[in-house]
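Data follows
____________
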Amino acid sequence: MGRLGFLLFVLILMLSLDWYAFTGLELILGQINGFSTLYWSISLLVVFGFIKVFQDIRRKSVDMIRSVSTNFLMGAGFSILVGKIVFIGLLLIQDLVLVLMQIVGWVISLATDLSFLTPERNPNVVMFLALLAGITVLSMLYGITFGKYRFKVEKVNLKFPDLPKAFDGFKILQISDVHAGSFDSLRQVQKGIEMIKAQKADLIVFTGDLVNSLKEEINPYIEAFSALSAPFGMFSILGNHDYYGMYQVAQRDPNAQKEYMDDFNKKHEQIGFKLLNNESARIEKDGESIRVIGVENWGAGPFPKNGDLNKALEGVEEKEFSVLLSHDPTHWDFHVLPHLKKIHLTLSGHTHGMQFGINLPKFKWSPVKYRYKRWMGLYEKAEQYLYVNRGFGFLAWPGRVGMSPEITILELKSS
């Protein structure tokens, strides 16, 4: 199937789904004058909106902040699409139940009437299904207008019997997944940075994905992030998205990869981060020390696997208290837990909490949990901890619902 054939297939599929959703909404809203025109106008606007968004993204300079209109069109279009999918799914379940009931009745009565193949929908049930879909759309619209910059500070206290006494009460601040290329407001980003500064952490760490794909995406925000500082320094690592620009460069000129990454590394330095690429740094306080270890990205599945834990641990003593920065939480189960060297605390990001879900004290859920075993918050196994940060920015869908952007304060305690 060629590109034209694929596009035609997608168009026919979308029109079929739109028609199916229309048959349900028409039952409860068809009496409203102009309903049909309004419905199909919105459907066409969503399609044209997506086309405009992709054109804007392709044409824009990566040195520019993404426009609010581009993000809104992308977010609103996707929100409406998700709402339709929810409505279509629920409507299909109802129709299948009705068909099954008609078939059972037909078999029992041995009737020959085939009218059961067109089930009669209950308008009240359809209205309820439409309300559920509407709530989904409204919550997602909230996410793209307010939720994406509603930064939240999460405080975590961790006790370790072998933590050096000098580090009792030591505060590590973690941010992750900035994805600078998605931002549309420098002012809102600065609001999050001011919240970071207000925490007065001893150490600041960033656990990968500074950009979406190209290193230049961080340029408009370097000055803002460079206002951060901490008494014991700031450290960073690379996430999977941080390599994608290098891969694009390599397609044009394989010899330009090193130059690209060297320039990217300098952007970390301009912010004030010490980039740890499979290496470690000793943090000293009152004659005692801990280690901060950083690995390049390693992720299960189709993600870059440049992380080398053995190399990063070179020079780290057997009983030295260690904090590992590793972007992808799958690294913890595959390499960190089985390793002979005990790593007390691993800090990761990557999942974003899928930017959508429920985050209550005693109930946490997101669709991403079906992809990642460790997807948000604190995990403990074999006296080792993993913390998965929800991320500072957003990617693809420019919004957050129930999964606020996160600034984490981890306070180390000597038990």
